[in-house]
Design a protein that fits this description.
binds uridine-5'-diphosphate-2-deoxy-2-fluoro-alpha-D-glucose; seven-stranded mixed beta sheet; 568 residues
Length: 568
């Protein structure tokens, strides 16, 4: 059946269970944003002009909320614990439901088993009936539970799984054999999934799909009202837990010279000792009251933790300037406890790299906090700057609906698009088809030839491909970014070919197929060329000064980096 947009979110609230603080938080959020979601759904419906696609049967299993995985988050909802994950799951539920799919939501192992069709009391056996879901959205905890209870069926059906993974999983950490061999350690296991099956909170690495969440949107009247009600001397400190205030006396003292400081730090009976007396602490607020506070404030200031949460986007959307610390050297799984064991070597250059790179000034100021003068100067300048509320399209309801719709209709990890590249060089008798790539007019990169046949089923459409050669110190992510493009891992298969080196006038004394997440690449000084033997290892992330990498880049829609211009 065709998926039909829904026009009421009340039935979704029925699908989400009760009895946990985390579930109440999510339902409150869905209720509060309902009108905004419905308008957005209507706009997308008009835009798609009936091209809605099929209705899918979807299981949503929120693993981290199950008792079996410890459910450490629910008891902390009202105590300043992380809420970002619940914000995102609430939004995923709303989006999938509005897009017209048929949903089942589970937050316990028992419900998971009964929905999968695992007979009660049975051990780790294959399912007796075919899996009744086209898609399963879960997280790392849920993945583990499914593996434990589906027996061999897990292997068969894992291509239908989508893993909500806040910080992302890079291909080198996902591939079991390679990760083990090369020491890419993780606490989360090696799943050999297609890297795009992992879905992140921010567009960290294009190797994963960007899922995101939404923030409140303002209409023209609200924007006007906010602008006139702003208290230009009011600052709100980012962080619900007292520990983030520890050792920040110096900054707070400087800030206190210019602004009235507010906080939303959880406390039981008394002011937490970390929060100085001159700070007006509201205690942890319900989400919509927190938004109201942001509407009045001029500045939202981060002290380094939590990393990459939703709150800075909400602050910017409500007309605040976000001031945050630059991390030099950047934090990563190699040098920081918080990221240790996470399946990524991404270098986090500030508390919120998305805000830094995708939004920037005048909304976002990223400064060196070790330099008090720079810090103080930033505050003074911010006090003089006027900013408008700003929300990137990809974090609006319409943007999120559009993106998820595109993923559901186009991403298919169960059928392979084309046969993998031959592991050995082709015999001369086998004639390979002409390359669809041609050298650009200024001879800097390769592009899709206008005369090449366009495969109507390929997604993203291959004619948005441009092949660029990286510098040794740059990953493909960076190489594409510098050209105003984004790395597109699905295109690696078009450039993992000997002739592509030739077309770029690269001399290859030898060409080998090997397993390495940096390949295809060339070691220029020794004229050695390398092709990728394992398609699962195609990776936008990663660099090594020894190699210049072949990078597949594509264009993207303004404010919607996940989708190319012709991707809808
Ligand atoms: C991030 O976790 P957090 O959940 O701590 O991220 P935040 O950006 O602080 O905020 C999450 C939500 O909390 C709300 C606010 C945000 O949507 O509207 N809130 C509130 O309801 N009441 C208040 O008084 C203050 C804020 C990240 F999301 C996680 O994935 C990470 O695990 C964590 C650690 O890096 O950081």
């Amino acid at each position: 059946a065709q998926a039909a947009f829904r026009s009421d979110l009340a039935p979704l609230l029925e699908l989400v269970g009760t009895g946990k603080e985390s579930l109440s938080f999510m339902k409150k959020r869905i209720r509060h944003l309902a009108q905004q979601w419905l308008w957005a759904a209507r706009r997308l419906e008009q835009k798609l002009k009936g091209r809605q696609g099929d209705q899918k049967h979807i299981l949503i299993h929120i693993g981290f909320l199950t008792e079996e995985s410890g459910d450490v988050f629910s008891p902390r909802v009202l105590k300043g614990g992380p809420l970002g994950e619940m914000v995102q799951w609430a939004d995923i539920l709303a989006a999938l439901f509005l897009l017209g799919h048929s949903l089942k939501v589970t937050v316990s192992l028992k419900e998971l088993q009964s929905n999968l069709g695992v007979p009660p009391g049975r051990g780790n056996c294959p399912l007796t009936n075919p899996l009744p879901f086209d898609l399963i959205y879960t997280d790392y905890h849920g993945l583990q539970q499914m593996k434990q209870h589906m027996g061999l069926s897990f292997k068969k059906y894992r291509c239908r799984v989508r893993v909500i993974d806040t910080f992302g999983t890079e291909p080198a950490y996902n591939h079991e054999e390679y990760a083990t061999l090369r020491g890419f350690r993780t606490n989360w296991g090696y799943w050999n999934l297609h890297p795009s099956q992992f879905m992140t909170m921010f567009p960290h690495t294009p190797d994963n799909s960007f899922m995101g969440f939404v923030s409140e949107e303002l209409n023209q009247t609200e924007r006007q009202r906010i602008k006139s009600n702003k208290v230009s001397s009011m600052a709100v400190v980012y962080g619900k837990e007292a520990s983030i205030w520890k050792g920040k006396e110096k900054f707070l003292a400087i800030l206190n010279k210019y602004m009235e400081i507010h906080g939303t730090v959880y406390y039981e009976t008394q002011r937490p000792p970390e929060v100085p007396a001159f700070v007006k602490n509201h205690g942890l607020l319900p989400q919509h009251e927190f938004q109201q506070l942001l509407r009045k404030a001029k500045l939202f200031i981060g002290f380094g933790f939590p990393y990459e949460g939703p709150a800075p986007l909400e602050a910017i959307a409500n007309g605040c300037v976000f001031l945050q610390a630059r991390f030099n050297p950047p934090h990563s799984s190699l040098n920081h406890e918080f990221f240790r064991g996470k399946p990524t070597s991404r270098e986090v250059s500030s508390q919120h790299p998305y805000a830094e790179d995708f939004i920037g000034k005048p909304h976002v100021w990223t400064v060196d906090y070790n330099n008090s003068e720079e810090f103080e100067a930033a505050i003074k300048t911010i006090l003089r700057t006027q900013v408008d509320p700003y929300l990137p399209y990809e974090y609006t309801c319409e943007g999120m609906l559009e993106r998820i719709h595109a993923y559901i209709q186009h991403q298919d990890f169960c059928t392979t698009p084309s046969p993998p590249p031959p592991a050995k060089a082709q015999s001369p008798a086998m004639q390979s088809p002409p390359s669809p790539l041609v050298l650009s007019p200024n001879a800097t990169h390769l592009m899709w030839s206008p005369s090449a046949r366009r495969d109507p089923h390929a997604w993203p459409p291959a004619d948005s491909l441009q092949v660029w050669l990286s510098e040794g110190q740059h990953a493909c992510t960076e190489t594409c970014r510098r050209r105003g493009l984004v790395c597109e891992p699905t295109f690696f298969r078009f450039l993992n070919k000997k002739e592509v080196f030739l077309q770029l006038s690269i001399t290859c004394d030898s060409t080998e197929y090997e397993m390495n997440h940096l390949y295809p690449a060339v070691a220029e000084n020794v004229h050695e060329c390398y092709l990728q033997k394992e398609p699962l290892l195609f990776s936008c992330a990663g660099h090594n000064s020894k190699y210049r990498r072949l990078c597949p880049c594509r264009d993207y829609r303004e404010g919607q980096v996940a989708l190319c211009r012709d991707c809808l």
